[in-house]
Amino acid sequence: MKTKRADSHHQCIVCAAPEQNPASLDLLFTQMRAQQVQARFMVDQRYQGYQGVLHGGIAATLLDAAMTQCLVAQGIEAMTASLDVRFHMPIAIGSRLTVIGRQLAQKRNIYLMEAELVANGLCYASAKAKFMLPKQPKVAP
Ligand SMILES: CCCCCCCC(=O)SCCNC(=O)CCNC(=O)[C@H](O)C(C)(C)COP(=O)(O)OP(=O)(O)OC[C@H]1O[C@@H](n2cnc3c(N)ncnc32)[C@H](O)[C@@H]1OP(=O)(O)O
């Protein structure tokens, strides 16, 4: 089952349709089981930092997006409150990544999440994060 593109972020840098945002990474997440989603991402040279290696900020963005989409798939539109990323190995340009996000737990209004970037059965980067529902409107006026 594909996760529907949410109206709340239809121009999102990660998951918007290209006609909505030409710079979008165009990730489409699939719900794999309860509280877990995944998407495929081809690491092309537009996304490099050091020569031949995926930029860490893009890797962190993919991890954040997977956890966001895991919640969105459950109808929860929460904000990233904290994000802890581990870069285990450099990710080469040309890699075909599986981007996985899952929910670990919920404590009061805090969702504890984790995500992984996997290729060829190896985890290249992982993250743990806390997501919270905003009390106030999501953006400053
Ligand atoms: C593919 C789709 C991609 C879509 C986008 C991906 C997700 C994003 O990028 S979201 C954008 C980045 N994130 C943000 O801009 C978030 C900005 N921050 C906020 O909006 C708010 O600070 C928010 C919602 C996190 C918390 O707001 P609010 O509930 O008002 O917090 P606040 O009143 O300060 O704290 C409430 C409680 O939570 C606790 N708390 C706040 N932050 C944290 C945290 N990181 N960890 C643990 N506890 C926390 C506080 O200590 C407090 O505890 P208590 O009630 O016991 O005193």
In short:
The protein is mainly beta and 141 residues long. It contains one helix and six strands; from the N terminus they run ββαββββ. It is globular.
Task: Write a structural description.
Helix content is 12%, strand content 38%. It has 141 residues and is mainly beta. The chain has a single domain, classed as Thiol Ester Dehydrase, Chain A, CATH 3.10.129. It has 1 helix and 6 strands, in the order ββαββββ. The chain has a 6-stranded antiparallel β-sheet with strand order 1-2-4-5-6-3, with helices on one face.
Structural classification:
mainly beta
| Percentage of residues assigned to helices | 10-25%
Low-confidence stretches: none
Distance, first to last CA? 36 Å
Query: What is the top-level CATH class?
Result: Alpha Beta
The CATH architecture can be given as Roll
Could you give the order of strands across the largest sheet? 1-2-4-5-6-3
Number of domains: 1
What is the CA-based Rg, rounded?
A: 15 Å
Order of helix and strand elements from N to C terminus:
EEHEEEE
Q: How many beta-strand segments?
A: 6
User: What percentage of amino acids are in beta strands?
Assistant: 35-45%
Shape: globular
What's the CATH topology name? Thiol Ester Dehydrase, Chain A
Q: Going by CATH, what is the homologous superfamily?
A: Hotdog Thioesterase
Q: Could you tell me the mean pLDDT?
A: 93
Q: Which ions and ligands are bound to the chains?
A: octanoyl-coenzyme A
Largest sheet report:
6 strands, antiparallel
Q: Note the total helix count.
A: 1
